[in-house]
Amino acid sequence: MYHQIRHFFSRSRDIILQTRSPKLPLIAEVTGGNFRSFFQKTAAERKQFHLPPFTEMVTIYMSDSSESLVKQRIASTASSLIEAAKGTPKTLVVYDHLLVEKRAGKYRQKILVRTDDMMTFLEPFRTQLVRGRGIEVEWL
To answer: What letters, b where the CB count within 10 A reaches 16 and e where it falls short, cover 25-63?
Structure first.
């Protein structure tokens, strides 16, 4: 990846970088061409905060035309996942019961799951997640 970005920057004359914080050291490294340092720091941060690729994350979306049904299903699923996470080290399950979005006439809520072994953690829920109507699982 480092070589691909370096190649991209070497072929372009002008690069526009949009940011709210132009004085961040990270921005100075990228604009100064110090990509190796940028990737090393980014990788260290991702490792420290248990983010991919150092752990696995998925977002589970549930949607339906009925807002109350979505809230009921998400609460039930999240409760089961949270309970399962108690016995699994380094596993985090998060959802906001108040946050509901509406897209194309359907209400939608999500659950975020972070763990070191996602397949093992989600195995007991496979039937529910695979066969459930209005359920999407997105690997991050």
So the answer is: eeeebbeeeebeebeeeeeeeeeeeeeeeebbbbebbbb
The answer on pLDDT for 17 being more than 90 is: no
The mean pLDDT value of the chain amounts to 86
Q: Flag whether pLDDT at 74 surpasses 90.
A: yes
Domain ranges of the chain: 2-11+22-48, 56-139
Residue 137 dihedral angles phi and psi, to the nearest 5°? -120, 120
User: Is CATH 1.25.40 correct for 56-139?
Assistant: no
Note whether 107 and 101 are within 8 A (CB): yes
